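Worked example 3 (structure in, sequence out).
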């Protein structure tokens, strides 16, 4: 990968080069810089969670509305307990699923050091412990909480490769740690444990897995809550949107459309990308954002999307597709 003016890209896979890249990235965060790094879900845009000025720059780089709170990433549950109050359900979910693609929204501790700007003034805080080796190495080297929204311009689909990050943020951030594509491909599942346990955002950890550990069902936020006073403010109807129009549940593509297929695709003359020819939801999640970006970049005006089942990771995939298809503000 080449070096772009203003944004350095450092290989961070394995070996001494990776160690040096991680040290450079940690120093950059300490100095208030912005570092994009891979997680198992999507690439995040990291800043020192306790550095108000860095966070202000992060919002500016993303073009994100400042009322949208950020997820604090930490290395382990002990570090998470220094930020938030853990009840029995939180302990259970952390033990079962961290490190991994689960974000918990918890009551913030009074002495929580995370900058108020990063939390948009809320009394709760979203926390996750990522499992990706490079994310873990960076958190370890940095030694404190790192806030990281997905490393895309606000409203765009989340990046799952360093190239996606560059396409959105080149020249606007300091550094990208390149460790190839993300394995999960959709963002973390967000569960709020302030009041009755609620699924705020379906994501890389299926709802069924969480409910099995809790022993009861998660609530869904009322739609009015999501639209007016969003519990997870990033869950606006039109989010994760490509430039192209998106037509859902397309069983037959029309002339002039591009086709985003799942499973057996019909014969078709136009552009076709298949989320998973063998109909596997895990593979489909990993391909979702890169295929949407690729069809968009190829100039498709309408992307027809074949039906995707709703079970397991299908809930998150269908959620992102519905947002991609929603009318843009
Ligand atoms: O997989 C992920 O979660 C990725 C990687 C980088 O970790 N991050 C990510 O962050 O998706 P972001 O900022 O794109 O989405 C975070 C979501 C937003 O919808 C935000 O509104 C919500 O989390 N959120 C953050 N803090 C919250 C809080 N205290 N209460 C409710 N929702 C919160
Ligand atoms: Mg995002």
């Amino acid at each position: 990968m080449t070096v772009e003016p203003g944004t350095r890209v450092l290989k961070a896979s394995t070996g001494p080069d990776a160690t040096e890249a991680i040290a450079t990235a940690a120093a950059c965060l300490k100095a208030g810089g912005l570092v994009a790094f891979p997680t198992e879900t999507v690439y995040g845009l990291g800043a020192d969670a306790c550095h108000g000025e860095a966070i202000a720059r992060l919002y500016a780089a993303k073009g994100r509305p400042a009322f949208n709170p950020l997820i604090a990433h930490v290395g382990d549950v002990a570090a998470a307990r220094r930020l938030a109050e853990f009840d029995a359900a939180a302990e259970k979910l952390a033990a079962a699923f961290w490190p991994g693609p689960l974000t918990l929204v918890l009551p913030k501790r009074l002495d929580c050091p995370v900058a108020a700007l990063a939390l948009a003034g809320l009394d709760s805080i979203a926390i996750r412990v990522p499992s990706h080796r490079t994310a873990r190495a960076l958190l370890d080297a940095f030694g404190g909480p790192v806030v990281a929204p997905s490393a895309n311009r606000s409203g765009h689909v989340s990046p799952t490769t360093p190239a996606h990050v560059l396409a959105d943020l080149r020249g606007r951030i300091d550094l990208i740690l390149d460790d190839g594509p993300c394995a999960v491909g959709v963002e973390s599942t967000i569960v709020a444990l302030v009041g009755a346990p609620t699924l705020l955002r379906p994501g890389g950890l299926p709802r069924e897995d969480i409910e099995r550990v809790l022993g009861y069902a998660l609530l869904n936020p009322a739609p009015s809550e999501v639209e007016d006073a969003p519990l997870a403010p990033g869950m606006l109807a039109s989010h994760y949107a490509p430039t192209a129009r998106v037509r859902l549940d397309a069983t037959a593509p029309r002339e002039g459309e591009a086709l985003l297929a799942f499973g057996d695709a019909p014969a078709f003359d136009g552009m076709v990308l298949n989320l998973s020819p063998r109909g596997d939801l895990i593979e489909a999640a990993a391909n979702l954002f890169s295929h949407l970006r690729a069809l968009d970049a190829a100039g498709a005006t309408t992307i027809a999307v074949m039906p995707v089942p709703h079970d397991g990771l299908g809930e998150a995939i269908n959620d992102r597709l519905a947002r991609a298809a929603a009318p843009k503000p």
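Notes: The longest helix spans residues 281-297. The two ends are 35 Å apart (CA to CA).
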